[in-house]
Amino acid sequence: MKKNNSVSDGDQPAIRAPRAVPSLKGVPMAARVAQRRTLLLDAALEAFGTRGYHAVTVREICAGARLSERYFYESFKSLEALFSALYLQLNEQLKTATLAALMVAQLKTASGPDRERIDALARAGLRVLLEFIRDDPRRARVMLIDAISISHGVGRISGQITREYAELTQRFIEQLFPNADARGIDIGVIATGLLGANIHIATQWVRDGFRPSFEVVLRNNLAIYQALSAFWSGLQPLDTAASAKPPV
Amino acid sequence: MKKNNSVSDGDQPAIRAPRAVPSLKGVPMAARVAQRRTLLLDAALEAFGTRGYHAVTVREICAGARLSERYFYESFKSLEALFSALYLQLNEQLKTATLAALMVAQLKTASGPDRERIDALARAGLRVLLEFIRDDPRRARVMLIDAISISHGVGRISGQITREYAELTQRFIEQLFPNADARGIDIGVIATGLLGANIHIATQWVRDGFRPSFEVVLRNNLAIYQALSAFWSGLQPLDTAASAKPPV
DNA sequence: AAACTTTGACATCGATTGATGTCAATATCC
DNA sequence: GGATATTGACATCAATCGATGTCAAAGTTT
Fold this sequence. Notes:
The structure is a homodimer.
Chain A: E1 23-24, E2 27-28, H1 29-51, H2 58-65, H3 69-75, H4 79-108, H5 114-135, H6 138-149, H7 154-176, H8 187-207, H9 214-233, H10 240-243
Antiparallel strand pairs in A: 1-2
The structure holds a DNA duplex.
């Protein structure tokens, strides 16, 4: 970065202040770099999501985005930075969709009993997750598989996000089990297990070509929640006759 | 590979059959290459288990094993082949230990009721898994993290092994839920979820420096099994007062 | 001891990659 | 229309890695 003052450098005013070109083809500068950044992120989802992080190069990303390699470093410092940005973006999308669905479920069951509301909340959250990766399986590769194994750059981000999800699950379960730790229960471990069940079910669901069907996966994944809920509240199983009737 | 027949190649017997040197320093040839292979596998566990697969090179493996780079290719075709061998070796160890523990638990509870035996079997299997990665956390990095994300060479092996564990879990659960599919239950999904819970709990346990304690993790992981068992059999929860009493 | 094999340390080669630079063509502002 | 900024295609450079080769020292067999 060289200062380009118009009146400096002794006696030669040959170097003049560079005129800022605010807009090109009608779009301002900031919008253009943002558009290029979006193109790079799209190409990143395609490349990372199909061939995996470690099989992708900067050149491939740029070729996929139809951009020169210089514009890669305009928006991202390295491949890992691009992956982190993509990972954070996908998590933001999932989190937004999840919170919206939980909000709706909360309103719809506000007047009902606690057990029904909790059941509806779990079902809504699981549905969003499964829809999220069914609508674009590349997200599963990025979020559920690659993000975990990348070394200490993305690893800490991924670990942080995973911890956030675990805490979210944990707070959810705390409502499920009122006086849990009095009975020797560690809610953190239970929440970690439930989150792992969700992740693994979703991952294998993608791997097996979305078999079994969406509804079967959702119902059985939810059944694990119901089982824990019923187990610790000492109640009878929830209405499996109504919610677990097989359409197959 | 050039044939070194002592009487061939026209008229020049200059090339003679290479004498086989069966033993050097008292150890025969086969034992020496086997020993070098073991050294490489040890170095692989150290390198892969601490820095991850994609951050390791052939040179590092050879330096760790204090072997020349030529002996790497004597036993393994590529880094991926070495990782596959290590992965298969670790799985073999875990499988052997697990089957042995299940055998003991089976014999100890053969005369008791089914529910107690199933509970003992699950506890024994989980205990072996947790001990396996506590005794050497590098195994967790290799088996639970890296093996999943490697592309189509190890990926298929890892997928196959994962599927085997899922089927083992599934067969275990089939005993838990006698007439499950009649109620719209997909045992495969449940088994996948339980396996994912085990894996994730173990992974996070290593990451968090083995906190909470071994017994707490084991008890709560087992509680998920117990909850599902109790849920589907319609029984009251198992004796949580006896098995879930916190020593902390 | 001679002939041969095995071992170990190191060199070398080709290919790939990240990162930066070059340069002409195009678009914009004065 | 001229000066400048932006864009795009491509070249270049240093570093790394996998894979193979070289060569002398040590060990073994006859």
